[in-house]
Amino acid sequence: MKRRTLLAAAVALACSSAAFAAGPIVIKFSHVVAVDTPKGRAALHFKKLAEERTQGRVKVEVYPNSQLYKDKEELEALQLGAVQMLAPSLAKFGPLGVKEFEVFDLPYIFDNYQELHKVTEGPIGQGLLKKLDSKGITGLAFWDNGFKQFSANKPLKAPADFRGVKLRIQSSKVLDAQMRALGALPQQMAFSEVYQALQTGVVDGTENPPSNFYTQKMHEVQKFLTMSDHGYLGYAVIVNKRFWDGLPPDIRTALDGAMKEATKYGNDLAKTTNESDLAAVRKSGKTQILTLAPAEKQALRKALIPVHRQMEDRIGRELIQAIYKETGFNPNE
């Protein structure tokens, strides 16, 4: 009887495997931002390329705007295999136990995309992605969103302007320290909840690249946007490691190629989208855009750079110094 049961189970397993092989491999790709953002459009571009290059053997289902999971839920869902692919912001990996990724949250560590890409596209970036292996995650690429600007219902131009202001942040010790260095009150909150929190006054302001600010309609509930360029918001495209390693080699090669092309597409798009969305915010007339004078920006920088040293024990002094060397950053300027 036991042997017959085992045989029946083996037959059922074989049948299910055959059925899976007969159909396309489904990749559920979940993210938390709008479709019409650099990440949203890059995800759809990856879907198109992946399905074309595998000739339908792979089907990519993209779920934007937290349709499946919120910020705090999506990484666990990936590790459990409920979804196969994510593109979470880099701040999300600190709470996961890979604190080195919080180096990207350090204020003013990158002056431009050229400096940034020396890190994300070079050995430092590849080394960081490799650290995800132990969490059951394979890192595929870094995607840009852009440089962040402060917003609030009062002008934020000098460090003193931030005192007592409740500003939404992601779950990041670095971002928490950044806000406290300015005298602001950091409020951790899921991205999907930010608009309502701004609308109801639960928080006074936030930090975002223009593409997020505009597509989430934050310009409707924020009176001022300060062009501070104080930090970078980017993502790591990641997959469930067990799923990825189990793919046929030719499928994995095709998906790698699709991801490489989608990454260039998305990163080029990030620059132009932030410019056009900033223009749309200005055109709306609902949010006043504040441009900082060089002295004002230097005052903000001076207030925030001490966060680098403060976070050395958490992130790793060697990593911070390696990025300084790669980009030519001078904390004393």
From TrEMBL:
<keyword id="KW-0813">Transport</keyword>
<protein>
    <submittedName>
        <fullName>TRAP transporter substrate-binding protein</fullName>
    </submittedName>
</protein>
<keyword id="KW-0732">Signal</keyword>
<dbReference type="InterPro" id="IPR018389">
    <property type="entry name" value="DctP_fam"/>
</dbReference>
<feature type="signal peptide">
    <location>
        <begin position="1"/>
        <end position="21"/>
    </location>
</feature>
<comment type="similarity">
    <text>Belongs to the bacterial solute-binding protein 7 family.</text>
</comment>
<dbReference type="InterPro" id="IPR038404">
    <property type="entry name" value="TRAP_DctP_sf"/>
</dbReference>
<dbReference type="InterPro" id="IPR004682">
    <property type="entry name" value="TRAP_DctP"/>
</dbReference>
<dbReference type="Pfam" id="PF03480">
    <property type="entry name" value="DctP"/>
</dbReference>
